[in-house]
Amino acid sequence: MKKWYDEAIIYQIYPKSFQDSNNDGIGDLQGIKQRIPYLKRLGINTVWLNPVFVSPQVDNGYDVANYFAIDEKMGTMADMEDLISALHQNGIRIIMDFVLNHTSDQHPWFKDAIANPKSIYRDYYLFAGENGHRPNNWGSFFGGSVWEPDPKTGQFYFHLFDKHMPDLNWKNPGVRKAMLDIAEFWLKKGIDGLRLDAFIHIAKADFRQNYPAPEGQIPVAEPFFANLPEVVHYLRPFCQQIKQDYPDCLLLGEAASANVNLAATYTDPENNLLDAAITFRCFTEDDSHLDSAIPAAYQVKPFDFEAFKLTQMVWEQTLAGISMPVLYWSNHDMSRLRTRIAKNDMQAKSLAMLLYLERGIPIIYYGEELGLTNLAFKHLADFKDQTVFDFAKEAEKEGYSEAEILKMVSKTHKMPARGVMPWQRVENYGFSKHRPWLTGEKQDDHFAEAEIADSESFFNFYRQLIALKKTPLFMEGSYYLHPTSNKSFIYQRDLGDESALVVVNLTDKPLKVKTRYQKVILSNGQYSLTDNELQLAPFAGLVLERD
Ligand code: NOJ
Fold first, then answer.
1. How far is CA 160 from the centre of its chain?
2. Which sequence ranges are marked TM in the entry (predicted)?
3. Separation of CA 405 and ligand 1 centre (Å)
């Protein structure tokens, strides 16, 4: 049976950076409400909000201290209820981020677990080790060990992300019940779905095992804490209960390292788990030109379109008949499309055309529709990230200047991709009357107001693209990728008698393609079309229908 989310076109809003209504420099819920006309104009039908719960903001809201209240910097519960109803009145659904793998160390459960080693909340988390000896050598995603000392007991607690974000113990039925209650609390408020943050990590392997690595190293031990079989066992009752109570709820899982077969397992309706999964595996980079003397982490890497083509083909083919692939170019965890991949505005638009017209659910990261690039940060400290400091140390040793390092990391890091929305070409961009919370120099000349007024703009291209995506052919049609050279990306969508061809020139040279498709329904860049030949300008893209 068709569900609303099979036709979702999601717009990801990073609430701190979208619109500030009370002029404290931090975006908020009332601000988002004010911008609903903009969202309607763009044509999206679903909004995903990054976390807005009470949080010390160590990880910008992914460190939750109270799941039942809104962070005061972003508003109140009344604002949230108001936003949900205003979006609904405007025909827009809303999904919220749901952080279920960890809490903040300021969450009352954790505070109690630390204050009272005999507390029932001790077992809500993962304490292990003794006499000041860490249980193993596993490294965390945010740098350093996953183990942080609990000085009172000589034990350690486990954290996959920042040390202020202790992982929950999903083996404990109390944790499972509590997380379900939180999810249902929000669904009862009328939200339409949940994005399950980092759910693939809720099960961990036996802590006695070290990850094979030279003495003294702290390797990120993914096989011991990603996609373990117990994930499914913990998740199924959670998902089943939610679907029983809220059958229309979209369960969208963030499965960063899941390969296509796991994604199929997580989203196969037969398995009673999720509806769709977000993978990071689609982003194929060319590592062959890196400086081997320094870590790969923040070096600029060209995008590998050939590998990408194969990945797209495999994901589309494997998930056909199972679930909707999730189609996105950027999010808050990575550098922006226009900085990371697209060489110019023309290519960025063609890449949007290429991806979002495939079979699947597009997620557009706020500002992508304006062609925004990453900010440039002026100081390494602005990144507030241990892994950046570690990288800079290595790079300095190899003779890189601070300016070179800053340039590299500004292009590759997630923080400069979280800049505030530039609504107008005025001080603070119409985002706020206050200096924005995230500073950094804007590197592009795109502003919403000007783009809305310009029929040739990025924004208006996205509008047309979204309108086309909403037609049955692009929502429901089958997908077939043509086996062409690495110069082009060409696929076909078919539904009944209808058929369309999406043709994108991946290169900076003109492209010639033989085709019988003659009716242009969307174009980006110059082209010429004769009886059976199409010529496309560098990086241009075209959507054609059969006549
Ligand atoms: C994934 C989120 O997208 C990311 O921003 C966050 O840091 C981690 N999960 C931890 O919650």
1. 18
2. none
3. 24
